[in-house]
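U., I forgot to send this yesterday:
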Amino acid sequence: MRFLTTFQTADFFDTLVSLAVAFVLGMLIGAERQYRTRTAGLRTNVLVAVGAAAFVDLAMHLAGADGAVRVIAYVVSGIGFLGAGVIMKEGMNVRGLNTAATLWSSAAVGCCAGGDLVAQAVALTVFVIAGNTLLRPLVNAINRIPFDERTSEATYSVRLTADGGAADRLREHIEKRLEQADYPVAEVEVESVEHADDKVEIVATLVSTAVEPNELDAVVAELGKESGVDHATWETSTKD
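Result:
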């Protein structure tokens, strides 16, 4: 068998060390994700780290450092497809970005372990875990800061609930009135209202990423007085 002539004990133990380091470090990263009940938990992060380490280690043994660099490039791009699988869009909200970034980082840890850069792999693991734990209080503190429409970047939309027969007229009017108030419209959509066949909802999305609340309140109040309009309001959604 070719295995008997090519087997090198030192190389084999080098591979074991690389895989073991990737396993332990991936487990540390994944344990935090599992505790937070995230989509990609302990086993997923371990497998990503070990898999990346195995590919890089194999390339190191077959083609040296140059081969490992090429494999790492493929790992970096390939892990993006796995990360995309945990990202979900629910309405205007996107979930799973942090989980995808953690998987990407686990792959980086595995690449370091596979490339025999154990100290770097450990350091990277510390930074990843710190990012997912120590930064949480800071994130929560920032999220508690009151939202300021005049300085914060967001997507703003004006919504009118109106009679279906007046939709075309109101669609043109809302766009014209908002532009007069220096709030140009990016797009206007007309949506049907559930359980009300004769009603529609006209949604005008603004180009502006910041508004003056009092000005927009006045414009919306004026639009709400138009004939055929039942209700008028404006809303904010933060950017992805």
